[in-house]
Fold each of these.
Amino acid sequence: MGSQKSGLDKVIYLVLVNLFIVFLGIGLIIPVMPTLMREMSLEGSTMGYLVAAFAFAQLLVSPIAGRWVDSIGRKKMIVIGMFIFGVSEMLFGLGQDVKVLYMSRILGGISAAFIMPAVTAFVADVTTLRERPKAMGYVAAAISAGFIIGPGIGGFLAEHGTRLPFFVAAGLGILGGVFSLIILKEPERAHIESEGEPVKPRFRKVLEPIYLIPMIIILVSSFGLAAFETVYSLFVDHKYGFTPKDIALIITVSGVLGIIFQVLTFDRIVGKIGEIRLIQICIGVSTIFIFAMIKVSAYWSILLVTFVIFLLFDLMRPALTTYLSKIAGNDQGFVGGLNSTFTSIGNIIGPSIAGILFDVHIDYPYVLAMVILAISFVISLFWKKQKPVFKETAE
């Protein structure tokens, strides 16, 4: 596991580059989707179904992919996932029929299901418990950076052709797969022995409080964030008259601040108060600030509230991932797959309900998000720190 090493294993950075490439590729295509919609005469509902196809594929495949991460290896799943991602982007770039686009998005969801648990398991294998918060902060930062930089590059590439961003994303994915195949080595895994605890079937473990409570919080937080983000631009446009430039500036600055905190301060915060306390603080404070989002009206107040909400979610997600990696034992891939599964459920349900509620009343999506987060905060109060029931032994 590399306990004798000082600093993070350098191979982590190649894995992080792969993750960055995937989310950069997802971000690249955002600016061209409206143009593509017009070119292919697609309806808005079709664009929504394409997004849902990605999420459903990731949802269905994640539990299986998580088990494969543990059985056939982290490297193989990363490499296969990168190649699938490349093929999915290529298909979307070439597709002239909506059926091809659906196939592309399904493959994209499968690639995400392969890559995410494999990366988190890989990082867990090559870090010590002390190093892991910093490494997981870097994982979250790589995802955020891809989302932030991608749309800007995609908008520039689209000037030279609507389909070009898809081909660039495909090339990056395949290139990442090739480099991973050549450079990455399957990490050695510390063998985790249970101290007096009977071995339980994997899916029964999910019902244990140490897994069940964080999975509920993952579901709720992804639901809340997806609901918040889905209607954010509509909310500030309708209620406060924000321009697209205002919205882009707010989201970009929030993302950059999140990356800075994830890279520079996340591991220190976890070291001082622990993952569970950090998650509880993030949920509680975000509940208050979402309520404030409904009440404030001054421009700078809206900016401040938005920054805080995005920052809290940016800290909570790596805290959850770090906690799960510490309790997963020999099931790093399986637990990573569950993380992706519950995240996908929230990402599917959140935008759908938020959109429906927005049509009823502009404030209702945030009222729901606030209530759901308040309930999850109460649930988190029953979450106790896991007692050490595992010990590591060299293979």
Note: The mean pLDDT is 82.
Amino acid sequence: MDLAYIPSPSRGVLHLGPIPLRAYAFCIIIGVVVAVWLGSRRWVARGGGRHTVGDIAVWAVPFGLVGGRLYHVITDNQLYFGEGKHPLDALKIWEGGLGIWGAIAFGAVGAWIGARRRGVPLPAWADALAPGIALAQACGRWGNWFNQELYGRPTTLPWGLKIDKTLPNGEVVSGIYHPTFLYESIWCVLVALLVIWADKRFTLGHGRAFALYVAAYTVGRFWTEWLRIDEAHRFFGLRLNDWVAIAVFIGAVVYLVLSARLRPGREDPDEIDPQATRERAEAAAAAEAPPATPRRTPLRAVRRRTRRPRRRRTRRPSRTPRTPRSPPEHTRRSRWGRSRHGRRGRPQLPLGRLTLLESRRSNGYVREARAARPGSGAGGRPPCPEGEPPA
């Protein structure tokens, strides 16, 4: 009796009304997001633009999905073609079945198209994305856990995977097996860490970081493939994917050695992303330029905009002129032009009506105020005798 094992999920799809939400698809989407995020950070550190990795991934991801499905259908054609098979099932990608070899090959074609449109060298872009691809594979392998597929031989280890499902041909599978999906997921994480460390330690460039990822992944894929028991084509006692892993490993190692001899070092940061280089140059020129003096609005224009509309004047009806009233007694002035008690705040003496006489002197015209007295020719008081001070 097995006391410890890894349980398998009872189902790998949730239905949100009529819309099915499949865990396998979510694992792939999470892997793509992680790969683009990490690749963008590495690309910016190398001197590229922030959006370059995402712009090229728009081309690479669809090509990779198509290539991975084609590789699976070609190598496992007995699952979809023949008596009692349904060829349209080959389009059901959500049921699992993506070959990493086809995904990488077709994804490279899509990346080449996107890099050519962007003016970016493909090897430099692949170096920046290599650890992210390994982490994307680590996330995607958990989709096999939800689908209860790609398990290994029976085992009694405490980390064995509990499988309980019915195959399409009606066969029931139940038991504890090696969790090969978990082995490969952990191995991909270690490959990503290895590539990041080697890239910093040896300054890998011109596609060598990507070649290191490919070589390291094929080593782990060889022994996990050896543990699997699902149906596959065999040649000389080895599964087809084992032979592919060997061939790809040899090609990656050869490229790694030749590239280090022919093109040592890393690409120039100013040459890997011309568009980002132009954007940085324009930003630097704008920062160094003196700030532009704001144009002043003429005062006349300001007044014109802030002027309030004038009120239309209405003609008032004419009024009968009033008879002017004589000022109060305490405000009347004396004949000398000032009040008796001073100019301010004092009551003034009532002095009657004033007349202005104008006399010519040697220094000009001088106005003299004389008080008209009652009985005088002007109808006021008579003038004071000479020598007598005014009252």
Note: Residues 52-75 form the longest helix (24 residues).
